[in-house]
Amino acid sequence: MTHVMIVPEPVHAxxxxxxxxxxxxxxLVADAAAxxxxxxxxxxxxxxxxxxxxxxxxxxxxxxxxxxxDPALADLGAEGYRLTxxxxxxxxxxxxxxxxxxxxxxxxxxxxxxSFRAALVSDVAWDIPCVEIEDTPRFGWRGAMxxxxxxxxxxxxxxxxIDLLALHKLNVFHWHLTDDQGWRIEIKRYPRLTEVGAWxxxxxxxxxxxxxxxxxxxxxxxxxxxxxxxxxxxxxxQARGVTVVPEIEMPGHAQAAIAAYPELGNTGELLPVYxxxxxxxxxxxxEESTLQFLQNVLDEVLTLFPSEFIHIGxxxxxxxxxxxxxxxxxRMQVLGLKDAEALQSYFIRRMDAYLTERGRRLLGxxxxxxxxxxxxxxxxxWRGVQGxxxxxxxxxxxxMAPNSYLYLDYYQSENRDAEPLAIGGFVPLEKVxxxxxxxxxxxxxxxxxxxxxxxxxxxxxIKTPAHVEYMAYPRLCALAEVAWTPAEHKDYxxxxxRLQTHLRRLTELGVNYRPLDSMx
Length: 520
Ligand code: ACM
Description:
Blueprint: E1 12-21, E2 27-30, H1 35-49, E3 54-56, E4 64-69, E5 81-85, E6 89-94, H2 97-110, E7 127-135, E8 141-147, H3 155-167, E9 172-176, E10 178-179, E11 182-183, H4 192-195, E12 199-200, E13 221-222, H5 227-238, E14 243-250, H6 255-260, H7 288-304, E15 309-313, H8 320-324, H9 326-335, H10 340-357, E16 361-365, E17 378-381, H11 386-393, E18 398-400, H12 403-406, H13 429-433, E19 450-457, H14 465-472, H15 475-484, H16 492-508
Parallel strand pairs: 2-3, 2-4, 4-6, 8-9, 8-19, 9-14, 14-15, 15-16, 16-17, 17-18, 18-19
Antiparallel strand pairs: 1-7, 5-6, 5-7, 10-11, 12-13
Helix pairs in contact: 1-2, 3-5
The protein binds acetamide.
């Protein structure tokens, strides 16, 4: 097989002779249903080339890029596409608009890397090699999570982050919107969630466990997204084939919300928005009024996010407050629950039922398996792969997000001194690339429950967009190949060879990626 310099590597690609050259006369021809993708194509190539790429009715005499929805290609699947480049014409065909969008991403990567520049480039021939590509993803869930709770990330960066996901044919942006250290989404019914919960007084310096007496930076930190901004992000993502999955954490990681509304907590204590890191005992209480509060929050979330999946967290819920709270003990008695694990399970089942009644699906971290899994729940396996294996084997859908392979907040070098401070761990590029989402421990007839794979960017130690990019790239390039490319095509040396070209594209896009180690 001839390799084209595309990341993730397409399923089939055969290079031909010669090339198509973009010129000032090149036109775009698009069916009505393909016009949005054609407009994105114009926007992608116009800045560097300076060419108008005018819309035309049919490819008469001018050299053309032709976008066609083609139901006959339905066998390629909802996201598949065919891309044909000849010296006269480039044809992008797909059964659905998102496939045309992916054909465009491959076309962009066939063009010279300078085509990604945001400013006019005058000394490059815009040659695109003749090729025939037929391509479709291995998995339907190709995701990345960004934690904006620990450090708020501006909306414009979120849009850039989504653009970069889409360039790599990643299709899920999991937006971790609430945590102990900040509540980041406007909820109209509960304004204090952002008036109070979006702001913390200061932030611990370094690793808190390394200090007997923690040091704080004395600098306030915060921010949130208005509902209008959320709608803008969701629409932007949708136009690029990306589903935004919101995460509203419960019943743990709740201190920012409890700071805003103390009646949601177990102790009555007036808490600040949390200023340090780690697993926090201040979890929601289990009163009916608190469940109602969270369902009211979810009602607004559901109007903003069309995603079928809604993530409710569920991870790292210390049970000490429930165990010592007379009110929680009384609830357990009334509900006939034997222990706090069962209470957590009850909590998640209530949310599962609530979302299911509204046509959505609950997604939670693998702790939701403890105490029994809710009927319709989908599990995101983060503490290694066992939770995913167990849930898939029991017939539940799973998204594989193991910390051992896909936590991009972990170090990418063994030489920690040469890297910015990170939470710990060691997940170099090759380790990400080596990940196989369908464990051999899952029976073949259950393998379809593995929806795909997702990388995580937790931001305790990642304070800026530039640092997010340093941790994300090129490791998200490797994830893209894990989730898109057939397992039997994977080849680390070939991937690294393609990355040499691909990183030039990321340079043009102003991405602060981590350079490859010299032996790669
Ligand atoms: C997690 O890392 N607590 C999901």
